[in-house]
Design goal:
five-stranded antiparallel sheet, Jelly Rolls
């Protein structure tokens, strides 16, 4: 198996760094207009994972083996009832958090999506704004936490993604992440997800040659990639920008990748 591959990854154009306005990316055309491809090395992380060299608070991502009791990924109510709870309990086990609340939202990715945001991502991105995410997290807790209350002056919050291939091995279009320990805070810029208005905001990185990218080729359905999307705690990894990419070594007649992504808010007592 390859130790690394060279691939083209799209990043936010550098012109947006220091700009007064935010980029707007909500379609293929706006994505192409506001991002540029860079040729980068993407390293196979399996050896580091097997050696125990990766952890959520240092690198921001880990790969785990997890045999799900759930299999009907075409059944939306069942996903929200059963798979969500399975992922909530798994997240508590992995993070040691005091509590975990699932976002009432998930994505089953495919090559033939119903809309732009259900497609494989084709540009390096973060799922949340670094300046607005805590308000979103607290709203999720209020709306879905069954009355639980975690005041921000007493509790820290962290957001995690749990990404799993479904139906078959992910031979094509794998996910790559930037190791959070190689990110600089000013590498991350906000952008808008709609053609008008200012409420829908997420974030993208600009290219920095110090960033290190990793992936796990041929992920199986009993493997879950867990990665950080924000964290209010001090001195821990904050965010792993991520995207799918075309692995030039993949078997091109392999079936299209199918995957499910679930997002979780974790709550920790302030130290």
């Amino acid at each position: 198996m390859n130790q690394a591959v060279t691939a083209e990854i799209a990043y936010l154009n550098n012109e947006w760094k220091g700009a007064d306005e935010l980029a707007r990316i909500y379609s293929r055309d706006t994505r192409k207009a506001n991002t540029s491809k860079r040729e980068v090395v993407v390293t196979n992380a399996r050896a580091r994972s097997e050696a125990g060299e990766l952890d959520l608070d240092s690198n921001g991502f880990i790969l785990i083996e997890h045999e799900s009791a759930f299999s009907d990924f075409e059944d939306k109510p069942a996903i929200e009832r059963d798979y969500f709870e399975e992922m909530r309990l798994l997240t508590l086990e992995l993070t040691g958090a005091h509590d975990a609340i699932i976002f009432p939202f998930y994505q089953v990715r495919s090559r033939r999506p119903a809309n732009f945001f259900d497609a494989y991502s084709l540009y390096m991105h973060c799922d949340f704004s670094p300046n607005r995410w805590q308000n979103q997290a607290q709203q999720i807790v209020r709306d879905n936490g069954n009355g639980r209350n975690y005041p921000a002056d007493e509790w820290d919050f962290a957001l995690y993604n749990l990404w799993r291939p479904i139906f078959h091995t992910a031979e094509k279009d794998p996910l790559t992440l930037i190791d959070a320990s190689t990110m600089q805070a000013d590498d991350i810029l906000e952008y808008r997800l709609a053609p008008t208005g200012d409420t829908s905001v997420a974030a993208l990185p600009v290219f920095n040659p110090e960033q290190r990218l990793y992936y796990f080729p041929n992920m199986e359905t009993n493997e879950v990639l867990v990665f950080k999307q924000q964290d209010s705690r001090a001195d821990v990894a904050t965010v792993c920008p991520h995207t799918s990419f075309i692995d030039p070594t993949s078997r091109q007649d392999a079936p299209d990748r199918r995957s499910i992504e679930v997002r979780v808010v974790c709550v920790y007592p302030k130290a």
